[in-house]
Write a structure and sequence with these properties.
173 residues, Peptide Deformylase, 7 strands, globular, hydrolase
């Protein structure tokens, strides 16, 4: 397994819509292992393939608490098929937008259809943090970032900050 480089805003790849995964095979399972290792190393609780530069509809999650046994989950071609009308506020952050946190309102419960690593179709009903993380990561697969759920002013402040930082990281000639 290896740690993959994270894509950071304002990289335009984060705005791409990810393509459906056609086949579950050993290469995809190895990629899932690398994504999980990258997520744990960051550390984070979720990671979409687009965040490591791969425009595939795939994400990994582990919302187990620090004192709990790890519970890695892999979702291939995930899709929200049902959302509750009840809203829920969670403070969100993102590995592709380091050190920025904000409260985001999302549906409190979702039902997600996906394919697992054996290639079988699955359905999961999620609430609480799992529901929030699933929605956050599925947003990534559609080119949406959590800052898109903030006011225009807050979103533009974050984007300006990262554009300035990316210019500072550019090599000088």
């Amino acid at each position: 397994m290896s740690i993959l480089p994270l894509v950071i805003i304002p990289d335009p790849i984060l705005r791409q819509k990810s393509k459906l995964v056609e086949r579950v095979d050993d290469d995809l399972r190895k990629f899932a292992d690398n994504m999980l290792e990258t997520m744990y190393d960051a550390p984070g609780v979720g990671l979409a393939a687009i965040q490591v530069g791969e425009a595939r509809r795939m994400l990994v999650i582990d919302v187990a608490g620090k004192d709990d046994e790890p519970n890695p989950q892999v979702f291939i071609n995930p899709s929200i098929v049902k959302s509750s009308d009840t809203p829920n506020l969670y403070e969100e952050g993102c590995l592709s937008i380091p050190d920025i946190y904000a409260e985001v309102e999302r549906p409190a419960e979702v039902t997600v259809e996906y394919i697992d690593l054996t290639g079988k179709q699955q359905l999961i009903e999620a609430d609480g943090m799992l529901a929030t993380v699933l929605q956050h990561e599925i947003d990534h697969l559609d080119g949406t970032l959590f800052i898109d759920h903030l006011s225009k002013l807050k979103r533009e402040m974050v984007i300006r900050k990262f554009k300035k930082l990316s210019k500072q990281r550019e090599p000088k000639i």
